[in-house]
Amino acid sequence: MFATGTRRAGGSRVPAPAARTPGTRLDVTLLAVAGAGVSFSGPLIAATAAPALAVAFWRNALAVAGMVPVVALRGRLRAELAGVGRRAFTLSLAAGAALAAHFALWLPSLRLTSIASSVALVTTTPVWTTLLLKLSGHRPPAGVWLGSCVAFAGVLLLTGVDLSVSPEALAGDALALGGGIAAAGYVLIGAEVRRTVGATAYTFLCYATTAVLLLAVCLVAGVSLGGGYSGETWLKLAVLTVIAQFLGHSLLNRVVGGLGPSITSTALLLETPGAALVAAVWLGRLPPAAAFPALAVILLGLALVIRGERTS
To answer: Given a cut of 50, is residue 11 above it in pLDDT?
Structure first.
C-alpha cells in the first residue's frame, strides 16, 4: 500500500499513488456473484457423466479457449501479457499450479470419503489463508481469525461432518484437506500477482497453467478426456465453464486484488449452503434443515472478517 502525498522523480515533484482502500462496493457485488457461480460447481459436476479429473481439465481448457479471442482482439491485453515481469509471471504459474492441485486433490476425495467430510475439510481454506499470512510475516487482526472460525463453524453446522476411521475414508479426508490448503495458496498468490497484473491477464496465465498440468495428470492416470461423451455431457461442461469458471473463479481473481485474500477465501465458504440451495431449485432436492442457519453463521463470519480487515 502506498502513502498519499508527493515524491520526487527526476527532480520534479509528482503525485504519489493514493492508498488503496480494501475493496469497493463493486468488489463486494462481484464477490457475491462469484459465490453464486462456484455454488453451481458441485451440482453440475455431480450431474456430468465424465471423470472428475476430466471435468476439472475441461472447465479450465474451455475457459482458456474462450479467452483466446479476447486476447487476440485486444491489443492492450496482448501488450500487458507481453510486459508481465518475470516475478509476476512465475507467481501466475504458481497460482495455476495451486489451482490444479486443488482440483486434483479435492475432486477424487469425493469418491473416497463422505461428501460431508470432503466439503468440511476442503473449506478450511480461510483458516489456512490466515495461518499462511501469519507465517509470511503479516499479522492478521483478531477479527479475521474470529470470523474465519465462525464461518467455518457454519460449514460444520450444515455438513454435520462425521469423519470415518476407515483407511479409504482417511485417504479421502487427507486429499480434501490438501485441496483446502492448495486453495489457500491459490488465493494468496493471486492476491500478490494482482498488485501489478490485470485480472484478465492473470486469469489467462493461471487457467492455462492449470489446464496443462491437469492434462498431464489425466494422461498419466489414463483418464478419458472425451471418448464416448454425449452431447449432453459436453453441454454441461460448457455450462460449468461459463457459470463456475468464468462467473466463479474468474471473478474471484478480479476481486482478490481489492478485497484481499482473507475476505476472498472466507467468502468461498458460501459455496456449501449455495450448492445446497442450487440442488434444491435445480434438482428438486430439499436443503437440510440447517442450511439457512448455516448460511447466517457463514455470513456472520464473513462480516467479522471484513470488519477486521477494514479496522486494521
So the answer is: no
The full set of domain ranges for the chain reads 56-311
Which triple of cell numbers denotes residue 183?
486453495
Measured at the CA of 117, the angle between CA 116 and CA 122, to 5 degrees, comes to 105
Q: How far apart are the first and last CA of the chain?
A: 13
**SS3 category, 86:** helix
- The model's pLDDT over 142-185, given as tens digits with 9 standing for 90+, comes to 777 788 888 778 777 766 655 556 788 788 888 888 998 999 99
CA distance linking residue 55 with residue 218, whole number of Å: 10
Top pLDDT among 95 and 271 is at: 95
**In this structure, are residues 50 and 237 in contact, taking their beta carbons and an 8 Å threshold?**
yes
What pLDDT does residue 158 have?
A: 67
| Distance from C-alpha of 187 to C-alpha of 252, rounded to nearest angstrom | 9
Nearest to 190 by CA among 259, 247, 242, 128: 259
CB 22 within 8 A of CB 259: yes
Check pLDDT > 80 for residue 275.
Answer: no
Angle CA 150–156–159, to nearest 5: 145
Please, are residues 272 and 155 in contact by the beta-carbon 8 Å criterion? yes
Is the pTM higher than 0.85? The answer reads no
Neighbours of 221 (CB within 10 A): 12
Per-chain mean pLDDT for the chain = 81
Three-state SS at 83 = coil
Residue written as grid cell 457485488: 29
For residues 12 and 147, which has the higher predicted lDDT (pLDDT)?
147
DSSP symbols for 106-165: HHHHHHHS-HHHHHHHHTTHHHHHHHHHHHTT----HHHHHHHHHHHHHHHHHH------
Backbone angles phi, psi at 16, to 5 degrees: -80, 155
